[in-house]
Design goal:
Blueprint lengths: L2 H7 L3 E2 L6 E2 L13 H6 L4 H29 L4 H17 L3 H18 L1 H15 L1
Antiparallel strand pairs: 1-2
Helix pairs in contact: 3-4, 4-5
Keywords: Membrane, Transmembrane, Transmembrane helix
Length: 133
């Protein structure tokens, strides 16, 4: 990749290390001395960041939709925990743009909430087992 080709089209560059402005004709960043080739190679436009944000949000739709569809088809009894978790995960991931927080909330609701009810579930199963004997 040619550095000179990038320099002709760009009027100012931003150093990825120190965030200072760098002239495309200089040999390196004046603040941190990062070579101009590295400064040019690490430029990101605002468009790529916004595209990444939109794609991250859009990926939440098939992820949470697929989880919900699979749960309703394969494990309908688990829908009590999965449907609220999908709603919370969808809102955080797609609408609020917080994919990691959405995934964490989903896992907490799907894993921790049933674990809280485990003693009552086990007691009921044990009662059914002993009543049959």
């Amino acid at each position: 990749m040619s550095t000179r080709g990038h320099q002709a089209a760009i009027t100012t560059l931003t150093c990825p290390v120190c965030r200072s402005e760098v002239a495309p004709t200089s040999a390196a960043c004046r603040s941190c001395h990062l070579p101009i080739r590295d400064v040019v190679d690490n430029q990101r436009g605002a468009r790529s960041r916004s595209n990444r944000r939109v794609l991250t949000r859009l990926w939440g739709i098939p992820i949470y939709g697929g989880i919900l569809a699979w749960c309703l088809l394969q494990l309908p009894t688990a829908a009590v925990f999965v449907v609220p978790a999908v709603v919370v995960g969808f809102v955080l991931h797609v609408l609020r743009g917080r994919p990691y927080l959405g995934a964490l909330a989903f896992l907490v609701i799907v894993v921790v909430a049933p674990a809280l009810f485990w003693p009552s579930i086990a007691t009921e199963a044990l009662d059914e087992l002993t009543s049959r004997l």
